[in-house]
Design brief:
341 residues; alpha+beta; two-stranded antiparallel sheet
Length: 341
């Protein structure tokens, strides 16, 4: 199948880079992962470097691609966005057809994430929609455009996001996860009326979370005072939790997997214990509990297959009475990744 060839070609053309980071680099990354808007002066005091040295190190981390962008952690409930995961498997197709499908996925305004994967599925999409009816129209349109080669698909609705972080691995475990203090679900259900200017601001911050108010003002043609006021309001109302540095863990020697954990529903206490264990795990970037299916989606990063197998065995041994199975999908190419549309 063409995806096997793509995967091999990708590994050959994208070898793991020998990027050496020292303790101060990791401290800088930890600070930027929890609040990307932290001024260099504050970072310098916390790290024990001059402001100039901090600026130089950040530039090097950006130029090497370790920091690939600065974004925001939005609270999708506040802005009435529902998240849907879509898994697609195709029959054998030409490279031309595959490129055409990728273009369809990446250019669709409601598709926030497009990953190529190996395992059970060839593509994993994350689609954002205001409700299930809008999602139905979106998915019907997308599937009709790729139907000739579509072998199988499934879609899952994210009922609750348990964790989303950039703090992966031993080097960053000392830093506090921004979602650790997120307001409980029952207090987040009231949506907030977002103005058009605030929508533009949120969309811009999703790719430029560290930009200054002046830079944002020039790009969006909004007065700086309005930018500052809007950012303060949106943050106070927890429309976004914080800004963050998005790290490219592929460059740091990690492999990315999306796991779909199927579980029994008869023991809610044990399920909550499983969710907490996943949320506390330093390998885990993202955990979502799915609606309409007794499944949990988990995104993890590990450095070796042995580490992955050890990770999976650990959870199966800890929760044998509720875990029915774990579907493994390795993400090897990030084609699009936005948290807001």
């Amino acid at each position: 199948m063409i995806y096997d060839k793509i995967y091999k070609d990708y590994l050959i053309s994208h070898p793991v880079e020998d990027i050496k980071l020292d303790l101060k680099d990791w401290k800088i990354l930890g600070i930027l992962c929890t609040d990307a808007r932290t001024p260099n002066t504050k970072i310098a005091k916390r790290v024990g470097l001059s402001v100039e040295a901090v600026g130089y190190r950040i530039r090097k981390l950006e130029e090497s691609g370790v920091i690939r962008k600065y974004g925001i952690y939005p609270d999708e409930l506040k802005i009435n966005i529902k998240t849907f995961f879509v898994f697609l498997k195709f029959t054998t197709m030409s490279e031309h057809d595959e490129n055409r499908f990728i273009e369809i996925f990446t250019k669709h305004q409601n598709v926030g994430v497009v990953w190529e994967s190996s395992g059970n599925w060839d593509f994993i999409l994350i689609i954002y929609a205001a409700d299930i009816f809008i999602f139905a129209k979106i998915i019907d349109d997308l599937l009709s455009r790729v139907a000739r080669h579509l072998k199988e698909y499934k879609s899952l609705f994210a009922l609750e996001q348990i964790k989303f972080t950039q703090l992966i691995g031993e080097e960053l475990k000392a830093f506090k996860d921004p979602y650790a203090t997120i307001t409980p679900l029952e207090k987040r259900l009231d949506t907030l009326i977002i103005t058009d200017k605030e929508k533009k601001l949120l969309s811009y911050l999703d790719d430029h979370g560290r930009a200054s108010a002046v830079a944002i003002s020039k790009t969006l043609n909004i007065p700086p005072e309005t930018v500052r006021f809007a950012m303060n309001r949106l943050r106070e109302k927890q429309v976004f939790i914080t800004t963050y540095a998005a790290l490219d863990y592929f460059k740091l020697g990690y492999s990315k997997y999306v796991l779909v954990i199927k579980h029994l529903l008869h023991d809610n206490k044990r399920l909550q214990m499983l969710l907490k264990a996943l949320a506390d795990d330093i390998h885990v970037r993202h955990v979502s509990r799915m609606g309409g299916a007794n499944e949990v989606i988990v995104t993890i990063f590990v450095k070796t297959n042995e580490e992955l197998n050890r990770y999976l065995r650990n959870y199966q041994n800890l929760f044998p009475e509720i875990i029915l199975g774990i579907e493994i999908n390795q993400v090897f190419k990030r084609l699009k990744e936005k948290l807001l549309i």
